[in-house]
Amino acid sequence: MRRHSEAGASCRAALGIAAGMILLWGGTACAATIAITVSDLAFEPAVVEARVGDVIEWRNADFVGHTATDRSGQWDVALPEGKSGSIPMTTPGVMSYFCRFHPQMTGIIRVKPKL
């Protein structure tokens, strides 16, 4: 009988450690990749929300090349026809961007602090 209770105590201890590890691991949010499609001379969606650490990925499904260019000059992503480009979000704030080749194409990224 004693062996069963010792084994049970060991099992409960191992489960407690595993549960603690899951809580610690689950407490940090994983970075997300937020996709923006470039099609018909537009960014879709035109407005996205992200968190610091997330990655914005533009996928150019259009028939011509584009850019995703930050209006403040912080970044400029080339998007050749049929290709993708991405950048990580490192700072909270609101970023407005456009295509250098087609300035009527605009978008907004709202970046919140990391959880």
Description:
The protein has 115 residues and is an alpha+beta fold. Helix content is 22%, strand content 42%. It contains one helix and nine strands, in the order αβββββββββ. The protein has one helix spanning 2-26; strands at residues 33-39, 42-44, 47-51, 55-60, 66-70, 76-79, 84-88, 93-98, 106-112. Strands 3-9-8-5-6 form a five-stranded mixed beta sheet, with no helix packed on it. A four-stranded mixed beta sheet has the order 2-1-4-7, with no helix packed on it. β5 (66-70) and β6 form a beta hairpin. The longest helix has 25 residues, at 2-26. The N and C termini lie far apart (48 Å).
Number of helices: 1
Radius of gyration over C-alpha positions, nearest whole angstrom: 23 Å
Strand and helix order: HEEEEEEEEE
Show unreliable segments: 1-5, 7-27
Main sheet record: 5 strands, mixed
- Mean pLDDT across all amino acids: 84
Sheet/helix structural class: alpha+beta
Order of the strands making up the biggest sheet? 3-9-8-5-6
Amino-to-carboxy terminus distance:
48 Å
Strand content: 35-45%
Helix content: 10-25%
Q: What form results from the Cα inertia axes?
A: globular
